[in-house]
Please model this.
Amino acid sequence: MRSLNLDQLRAFVEVVARGSFTAAAKELNLTQPAVTHQVQELERRFRVTLVERFGKRAYLTQAGEKLIVHARQLLEDDARAQMEMRKLNDGWLGRVRVGTSATVLMYALPPILRRLKTAHPQLEISLKTLLTATTLEMLKTNALDLGLCALPVEDPAFEVTSLFEDELVAILPAEMTKIPKKVTPAFLSRCPLILVNEGSALRRTVGEWLAHAGPPPKPLMEFDNVEPIKSVVAVGLGCSVVPRMCLGGGHVATARTLVRPLSPSVGRQVGVIRLRGKRSTEGIDLAWAALLTLQRR
Model:
């Protein structure tokens, strides 16, 4: 029997991870027929059907579910072998893939990344801005190595270390009058609200806080992250609740907003997460140690 072809396994894994041959082809920088051919060759080799198509989506068969575990392991071993050889050749420390929120990436990570790259220039760092749920899913499929996520994360599949708590505050237009010293759910529920999209951990936390005054009202506008929210509030279109972290740095929009603490107070806990039992690398260990310095914020 012929030896396994890693390119075929990589095509198979990408089709499963992205749910379609077209998306896998785009990720691999190949044509869709080329990816289809690689998966078909793998099926002919084992004489089983690995992937079935329903509409535009691709789904694993029972045989595919068995093979995908081994395929991911073999590709991980291949990457590890290449990393070890590159380390001997040019001092490369490997790649670490980190999923995080846009706010943490913009306001907490830059000094960490700067120190890490200064100390270890051969370390390759890949960052993705994602919702917590997406980060957890990608950690489980080995598409990420580490995640910076809102807590709690109670899935026993993950190793979780708490880093810091970021206070949530209300932001309101500067020209708004009769604002209490501390903003309550009842007060904010009467204002036009600008919030992050449903599905985010921040939106769930804000919704739970607003629920102290009854069913949370429907927001006037929704955005993927807090950056456009600050600008919309600054021009007087509504009010919001955001992490205090995002109000630093002299942002133009924050100069035209009022900031008030919440009553009852509420914050979001942020932690670093990795898949329990995942084999580590020198690069991942270096990034993990660097992220732990956020505990001293």
Q: What stands out?
A: Residues 88-163+269-296 form a domain with the D-Maltodextrin-Binding Protein; domain 2 fold (CATH 3.40.190.10).
